[in-house]
């Protein structure tokens, strides 16, 4: 079975995630878009693993999942602190540092 | 199915293991040791751990037999996941020295009147009763020390990583603790939290690109190992689109970490908002680790595709130097100014990185690009650390006085502090007899011999622009009249003073006698493949 459709799908998912990060305002949604990018990468890794006939890509996908989980812990802690301080999770409101 | 256990050379990776072990013990200390003893326990533990790791590095260094007639170039350890060779060991020593200075800066208590510069209770909202109570009780977050140690362990792994997966894990291990550290300032907490948010969001975004780059490169080469990628590049097998896409996306992730334009937008905000001790450590050590990883990835794995990535990197280097130097001209905040200056430095280091040539083209006596880059990051790291340490001691009623206008008349208030800061700025500008001059000369020479003369011309022009804004700060300190009460210089404890002294001394010594270090780097600056 050809790997191309899966790679195309992962590229589409990655692009959606990328656009989400660039256009959405809510920090949580931006963060979800980043996770979508990571999962698109996982799909590509697993597909290439199958196409190349070795397991390295699948192992890498597990590591990416673990790292994504760790990133959630750190990220949500930071977003929570900001939300409790400002009563807003909008990334546009965090604009004290500029110029 | 037979399963063979992987063979790990624990002794050769002991510096990483020591630092990770200290970090884990540090977390246990938080749980088990009473609050009154925690600060000292953590400080001593972290300092001893870093010194121990330095000792372990010296042991590993001796295994390579650097002095003998047939020195070993290095070892591939842990089934080829990590490469312990000359550049790795040098970067380990440098990062551990910077980490030790970082521990000293983090431990400083005298400037804030008996507490560290980190939030008393990060969970207490700014401006509430809970925060005032935490501050009245003299609470402090000693978790910063284990966080620092985790970041250091990632930084040790990053330049040694010899496959894409290890590279990714190391990148995250070094980044995640730094995101948290950025948000823990005791004063100006809104700015600090905002810095953490911005750093985290953009860091996560760039690591998304990095992972996709890993996937594409893996699809191209069929392996994560650098040596196998190099083989695939050499035999030009597989799809070129995958190689170019993968290489570009990996570059995005790494250039984000070194703060190169156009991925530098986070640098000024994060450097300004983060606690100054964290900024100093982050500016120095992250850049060292990330340039180490960038060199290894692009020289060892993608060295054969040099003609594909070099033009792009020319553009990035030029843009980085121009953006860093020109934007620094208009800054009015000292930390922001130093941040833009670090962007400009990233551009200068990239200039040295462009000196990539095949080994046959490097003649004896030439400055090799790895040597030039390692020398530059050494001088840059120590100068930056000392400069940010000085920012912590110039204070007014609201804490650190970072606005440039508040620094007017500093030369009269404290000639010593202003003099050292002026010397460090001259070093950053690259005035002869400072280490910055030798560093700039080395990277320019390396780039020139690879034919990157347009980049070197821009670099020389931008050095002149950069000299202007460094001198502007010196003029403000010595020749402007103070506004109102003028700045005051708090007397720091021996911790911060020693960081400043070490940075200034290194800037002077490496400027006057750069020969020994350059020669030593020339002998070891070769990656094993």
TrEMBL record, chain A:
It comes from the Bacteria. Pfam families: Oxidored_q2. Coiled coil: none annotated. One of its GO terms (biological process) is ATP synthesis coupled electron transport. One of its GO terms (molecular function) is NADH dehydrogenase (quinone) (non-electrogenic) activity. The keyword Repeat does not apply. It catalyses: a quinone + NADH + 5 H(+)(in) = a quinol + NAD(+) + 4 H(+)(out). It comes from Nocardioides pocheonensis. Keywords: Cell membrane, Membrane, NAD, Oxidoreductase, Quinone, Translocase, Transmembrane, Transmembrane helix, Transport. Its EC number is 7.1.1.-. The gene is nuoK. It is found in: Cell membrane; Membrane. NDH-1 shuttles electrons from NADH, via FMN and iron-sulfur (Fe-S) centers, to quinones in the respiratory chain. The immediate electron acceptor for the enzyme in this species is believed to be a menaquinone. Couples the redox reaction to proton translocation (for every two electrons transferred, four hydrogen ions are translocated across the cytoplasmic membrane), and thus conserves the redox energy in a proton gradient. The chain crosses the membrane at residues 6-22, 29-48, 60-83. It is an enzyme of class 7 (translocase). NCBIfam families: PRK05715.1-2, PRK05715.1-3, PRK05715.1-5. It is a multi-pass membrane protein. Belongs to the complex I subunit 4L family. InterPro entries: NADH_UbQ_OxRdtase_chain4L/K (IPR001133), NUOK/Mnh_C1-like (IPR039428). This is NADH-quinone oxidoreductase subunit K. GO terms for cellular component: NADH dehydrogenase complex; plasma membrane. The keyword Cell inner membrane does not apply. NDH-1 is composed of 14 different subunits. Subunits NuoA, H, J, K, L, M, N constitute the membrane sector of the complex.
TrEMBL record, chain B:
It catalyses: a quinone + NADH + 5 H(+)(in) = a quinol + NAD(+) + 4 H(+)(out). Residues 161-463 form the NADH:quinone oxidoreductase/Mrp antiporter transmembrane domain. One of its GO terms (molecular function) is NADH dehydrogenase (quinone) (non-electrogenic) activity. The keyword NADP does not apply. It is an enzyme of class 7 (translocase). Its EC number is 7.1.1.-. One of its GO terms (biological process) is ATP synthesis coupled electron transport. Pfam families: Proton_antipo_M (PF00361). Keywords: Cell membrane, Membrane, NAD, Oxidoreductase, Quinone, Translocase, Transmembrane, Transmembrane helix, Transport. One of its GO terms (cellular component) is endomembrane system. The keyword NAD applies. It is found in: Cell membrane; Endomembrane system; Membrane. It is a multi-pass membrane protein. NDH-1 shuttles electrons from NADH, via FMN and iron-sulfur (Fe-S) centers, to quinones in the respiratory chain. The immediate electron acceptor for the enzyme in this species is believed to be a menaquinone. Couples the redox reaction to proton translocation (for every two electrons transferred, four hydrogen ions are translocated across the cytoplasmic membrane), and thus conserves the redox energy in a proton gradient. PANTHER family: NADH DEHYDROGENASE (PTHR22773). NDH-1 is composed of 14 different subunits. Subunits NuoA, H, J, K, L, M, N constitute the membrane sector of the complex. Belongs to the complex I subunit 2 family. This is NADH-quinone oxidoreductase subunit N. The gene is nuoN.
């Amino acid at each position: 079975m050809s790997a191309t459709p899966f790679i195309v799908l992962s590229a589409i998912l990655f692009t959606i995630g990328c656009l989400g990060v660039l256009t959405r305002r809510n920090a949580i949604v931006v963060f979800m878009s980043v996770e979508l990018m990571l999962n698109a990468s996982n799909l590509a890794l697993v597909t290439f693993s199958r196409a190349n006939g070795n397991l390295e890509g699948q192992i890498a996908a597990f590591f990416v999942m673990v790292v994504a989980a760790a990133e959630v812990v750190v990220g949500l802690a930071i977003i929570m602190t900001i939300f409790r301080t400002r009563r807003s999770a909008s990334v546009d409101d965090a604009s004290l540092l500029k110029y | 199915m037979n399963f063979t256990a992987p063979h790990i050379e624990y002794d050769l990776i002991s510096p990483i293991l020591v630092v990770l072990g200290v970090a884990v013990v540090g977390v246990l200390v938080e749980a088990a040791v009473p609050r009154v003893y925690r600060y000292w326990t953590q400080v001593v533990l972290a300092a001893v751990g870093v010194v121990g790791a330095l000792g372990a590095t010296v042991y590993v260094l001796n295994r390579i037999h650097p002095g003998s007639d047939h020195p070993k170039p290095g070892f591939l350890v842990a089934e080829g996941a990590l490469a312990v060779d000359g550049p790795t060991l040098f970067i380990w020593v440098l990062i551990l020295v910077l980490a030790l200075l970082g521990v000293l800066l983090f431990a400083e208590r005298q400037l804030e009147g008996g507490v560290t510069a980190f939030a008393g209770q990060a969970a207490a909202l700014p401006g509430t009763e809970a925060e005032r109570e935490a501050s009245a009780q003299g609470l402090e977050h000693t978790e910063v020390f284990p966080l620092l140690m985790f970041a250091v362990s990632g930084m040790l792994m990053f330049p040694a990583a010899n496959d894409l997966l290890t590279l990714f894990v190391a990148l995250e291990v070094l980044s995640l603790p730094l995101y948290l550290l950025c948000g823990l300032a005791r004063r100006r907490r809104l700015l600090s939290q905002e810095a953490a948010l911005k750093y985290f969001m953009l860091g996560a975004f760039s690591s998304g690109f990095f992972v996709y780059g890993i996937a594409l490169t893996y699809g191209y080469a069929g392996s994560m190992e650098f040596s196998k990628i190099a083989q695939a590049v050499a035999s030009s097998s597989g799809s070129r689109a995958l190689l170019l896409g993968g290489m570009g996306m990996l570059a995005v992730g790494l250039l984000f970490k070194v703060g190169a334009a156009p991925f530098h937008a986070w640098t000024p905000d994060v450097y300004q908002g983060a606690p100054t001790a964290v900024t100093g450590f982050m500016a120095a050590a992250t850049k060292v680790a990330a340039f180490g990883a960038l060199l290894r990835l692009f020289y060892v794995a993608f060295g054969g595709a040099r003609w594909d990535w070099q033009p792009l990197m020319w553009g990035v280097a030029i843009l980085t130097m121009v953006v860093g130097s020109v934007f620094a001209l208009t800054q009015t905040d000292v930390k922001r100014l130093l941040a833009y200056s670090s962007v400009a430095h990233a551009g200068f280091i990239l200039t040295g990185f462009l000196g990539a040539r095949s080994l046959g083209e490097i003649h004896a006596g030439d400055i090799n690009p790895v040597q030039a880059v390692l020398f530059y990051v050494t001088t840059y790291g120590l100068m930056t650390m000392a400069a940010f340490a000085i920012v912590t001691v110039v204070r007014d009623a609201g804490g650190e006085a970072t606005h440039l206008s508040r620094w007017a008349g500093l030369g009269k208030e404290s000639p010593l502090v202003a003099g050292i800061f002026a010397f460090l700025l001259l070093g950053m500008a690259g005035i002869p007899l400072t280490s910055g001059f030798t560093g700039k000369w080395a990277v320019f020479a390396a780039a020139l011999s690879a034919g990157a003369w347009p980049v070197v011309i821009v670099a020389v022009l931008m050095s002149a622009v950069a000299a202007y804004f460094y001198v502007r700060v010196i003029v403000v300190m010595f020749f402007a009249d103070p506004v109102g009460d003028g700045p005051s210089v708090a007397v720091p404890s021996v911790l911060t003073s020693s960081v400043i002294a070490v940075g200034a001394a290194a800037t002077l010594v490496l400027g006057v006698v750069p020969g020994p270090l350059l020669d030593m780097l020339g002998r070891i600056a070769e990656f094993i493949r």
